[in-house]
Design goal:
By secondary structure, the protein is mostly helical. The chain has one domain. It is built from six helices and no strands. It has helices at about 5-10, 15-35, 35-55, 55-60, 65-75, 85-110. It is globular, with a radius of gyration of 16 Å.
C-alpha cells in the first residue's frame, strides 16, 4: 500500500494528520509530567518521520530559519561552559530536537488546521 506524500506533507491536504499531530503535541506538552516519556516519544514519532518522507522539503530553504538554527547551536555549545555538563547536554539534545520538530510542524501544518 502506497500512501501519497500529500496526505502527510501538503498543508492543504493533511487536515486529518495535521489535527492528530497537533493534538498529540498539545497532550505531550500538557501532560508530559504525568505520563512521562511515553507522550514525549509519541510527540517525536508524529513529527520526525515527516523529515524522512521528504527531506528536501525541509532542507530546501534552511537559510530562512537561521535564528532557530543559531539558538540550537548556542544551546549545544553551552555544554562547554556549564557547571553540570551532563544535564546541559541532555537539555541541549531536547531543545534541539524540539526546534527541529517545530520547524517540521511549521512547514507542514496550515494555520487553518
Amino acid at each position: 500500500m502506497k500512501i501519497p506524500k500529500s496526505i502527510l506533507l501538503d498543508p492543504e491536504a493533511n487536515k486529518a494528520y495535521g489535527a492528530f499531530a497537533v493534538a498529540v503535541s498539545v497532550l505531550a506538552f500538557a501532560y508530559s509530567s504525568n505520563f512521562g516519556q511515553v507522550l514525549i516519544l509519541a510527540y517525536y514519532a508524529v513529527w520526525l518521520p515527516l523529515f524522512f518522507v521528504d527531506y528536501r522539503r525541509f532542507t530546501w530553504k534552511l537559510s530562512n530559519a537561521w535564528l532557530p538554527i543559531l539558538f540550537a547551536t548556542y544551546v549545544c555549545l553551552s555544554v562547554f561552559w556549564s557547571q553540570a555538563a551532563g544535564i546541559s547536554a541532555r537539555a541541549a539534545v531536547q531543545y534541539s530536537s524540539h526546534i527541529v520538530c517545530a520547524y517540521i510542524a511549521a512547514r507542514t501544518i496550515s494555520v487553518r488546521t
